[in-house]
């Protein structure tokens, strides 16, 4: 029985996917040659490819650039008060809304900067916050 189970598991996890995996690996290595990846430790490579998944949110706040706002404006203080009350998953959803991804590139939050700008609409009560993901700008009506 043990031999049967071992052979079955080996077939399911190795032999049955061997050809598709080899095709994938050939294509992957054509675009990303292995010699370029050997300089990284596995953990560094994972962060480089997947991005950071844990964050220091206070560092995020520290790196914000304000357009038509100062960090002492009531709208900005209200924004950060609400932001810090959000659960971790919602904060990541905000990051995805802002940047298109719930992760930060391999450089980390130290280098991640975004803008909070006033869209300067005629009636801010009729305008919703929106983001420009290409330029990392959050348009936050007063």
Automatic annotation (TrEMBL):
Keywords: Ligase, Transferase, Ubl conjugation pathway. Transmembrane segments: none annotated. It catalyses: S-ubiquitinyl-[E2 ubiquitin-conjugating enzyme]-L-cysteine + [acceptor protein]-L-lysine = [E2 ubiquitin-conjugating enzyme]-L-cysteine + N(6)-ubiquitinyl-[acceptor protein]-L-lysine. It comes from the Eukaryota. One of its GO terms (molecular function) is ubiquitin protein ligase activity. Residues 1-142 form the HECT domain. Gene3D superfamilies: Hect, E3 ligase catalytic domain (3.30.2410.10), Hect, E3 ligase catalytic domains (3.90.1750.10). The active site is at 134 (glycyl thioester intermediate). Its EC number is 2.3.2.26. One of its GO terms (biological process) is protein polyubiquitination. PANTHER family: HECT-TYPE E3 UBIQUITIN TRANSFERASE, UBIQUITIN-PROTEIN LIGASE E3C. The keyword Metal-binding does not apply. This is HECT-type E3 ubiquitin transferase.
């Amino acid at each position: 029985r043990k031999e049967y189970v071992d052979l079955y598991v080996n077939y399911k996890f190795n032999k049955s996917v061997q050809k598709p995996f080899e095709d994938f690996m050939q294509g992957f290595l054509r675009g990303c040659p292995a010699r370029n990846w050997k300089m990284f430790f596995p953990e560094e490579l994972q962060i480089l490819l997947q991005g950071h998944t844990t964050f220091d949110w206070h560092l995020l706040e520290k790196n914000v650039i304000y357009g038509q706002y100062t960090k002492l404006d009531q709208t900005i203080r209200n924004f950060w008060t609400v932001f810090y009350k959000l659960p971790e998953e919602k904060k990541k959803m905000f990051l995805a809304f802002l940047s298109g991804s719930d992760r930060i590139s391999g450089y980390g939050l130290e280098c991640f900067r975004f803008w909070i700008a006033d869209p300067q609409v005629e009636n801010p009560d009729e305008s919703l916050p929106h983001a420009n993901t290409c330029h990392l700008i959050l348009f936050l009506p007063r």
